[in-house]
Amino acid sequence: MDLTFTAILLGIVEGLTEFLPVSSTGHLILATELFGYDAAQWATFNIVIQLGAILAVIVQFWRTFWAVGMGLLKFNPTSIRFVRNVLVAFLPSAVIGLALKHYIEALLGQPSVVAWALIVGGIAILGIEKVAKQGPLTGVAELPLKKCIGVGFAQCLAMVPGVSRSGATIMGALAMGVERRTAAEFSFFLAVPTMMGATTLELWGARHELAAGAGPVGWNEIAIGFFVAFVVALVVIKAFMAFVSRSGFAPFAWYRIVAGAAALFLLARM
């Protein structure tokens, strides 16, 4: 497969799935297996293009980040609570992720785990959507500390490839009575330190390969993938917020179930 075409394809997959409750890592793993390209050759590429998706969050919510930053300089209580809530939710995955890093990496090479996680996660979303009681619309800064800690531990479920980081955090928030839009926004804000931390750790591990010129896949492909992931993620974030406010998360649950079943079928035939 042409390198440029593969870079565009993977950039689309990353940007399209990173912030939807369908698992970007799971889709990249399945794409690796089903399209038959060398996963090791594209490992660094997959790490770097995540930064494009992170940049999309910062651009989309730049007014919020700017207001929080200015508020911190003035010791504004709302800004302080916002940062506290995000950092508290980030800590469980940071600690547990470092402790279980080698076990997590072992799961990344098992596409069947991704397929089953997609199916089970879809069923879980349908169940939570049916029984969860939504609270009033509030800001992230107004969430109680207890719920932020709960969302942080829910995010740890995404260490299993195919679970979905955004899906775990949003469903965790919904299960604790957080309103849909607030749950989705909290997931986006929480993605920034979580993905930055994970990406930085992975880039440090690949530092020798990067110093040697990014490996078999060149910087041109990385730049293309980064840009495509950024643009697609920016579009997806805007559309996702409007969609879930109207229709909820059930369509994503059914997609997960169908995609997981199709992946199991295709993997069995390979």
Using brief descriptors, characterize the structure shown.
single chain, 270 residues, mainly alpha, 78% helix
What would you say about this model in short?
The chain has 270 residues and is mostly helical.
Topology:
Elements lengths: L2 H15 L6 H12 L7 H18 L1 H12 L3 H23 L1 H7 L3 H21 L13 H11 L9 H11 L4 H26 L1 H5 L7 H29 L2 H20 L1
Could you characterize the architecture of this molecule?
This protein is mostly helical and 270 residues long. It has helices at residues 3-17, 24-35, 43-60, 62-73, 77-99, 101-107, 111-131, 145-155, 165-175, 180-205, 207-211, 219-247, 250-269. Helix 3 (43-60) packs antiparallel against helix 10 and helix 9 (165-175) packs antiparallel against helix 10. The longest helix is centred in the C-terminal third of the chain and has 29 residues, at 219-247.
